[in-house]
Specification:
136 residues; 8 helices
Length: 136
């Protein structure tokens, strides 16, 4: 794995390489620099808009920098781009629960159950969310 300095140099030499920018963003995020990672991820997504991993990390960076609205926007865009991806719905459920938005979490949990009806754990989790919501 390349060091942060090596990744920065590589991006300077190949500024139009979305994969390099993503790698640099990952390293920056790991080093506790989510704001700098956002800059690299936005540029990476401008070059490769279909990069779902970059979009997921961008959402985490926005959340880490105190911008949950932008984080939600990125996760919702990911779910729209991949309507049959249960993991995208699971991410939204976790995100909305963490943000104290149980109604939004329930909406996406229900969609996850619809996408994976054979998964009993998801169904039980949705039932728990609905029960908790009803009790509050």
């Amino acid at each position: 794995m390349k060091s942060l300095l090596e990744l920065k140099r590589a991006v300077v030499l190949a500024p139009d390489d979305g994969a390099l920018r993503y790698a640099l963003a990952e390293a920056l995020f790991t080093e506790g620099e989510p704001g700098s990672a956002i800059t690299q991820l936005e540029r990476a997504l401008a070059l490769t808009p279909e990069d779902d991993n970059a979009r997921r990390l961008l959402a985490r960076c926005y959340e880490k920098t105190g911008d949950p609205a932008r984080a939600a926007k990125e996760l919702e865009l990911l779910a729209r781009r991949r309507p049959d991806d249960v993991s995208a719905r699971d991410e939204l459920v976790g995100f909305f629960l963490q943000q104290g938005r149980p109604d939004d979490a329930i909406l996406h949990a229900a969609e996850a159950v619809r996408l994976a009806p054979q998964d009993a754990k998801r169904s039980v989790f949705l039932a728990q969310l609905l029960l908790e919501r009803r009790l509050t």
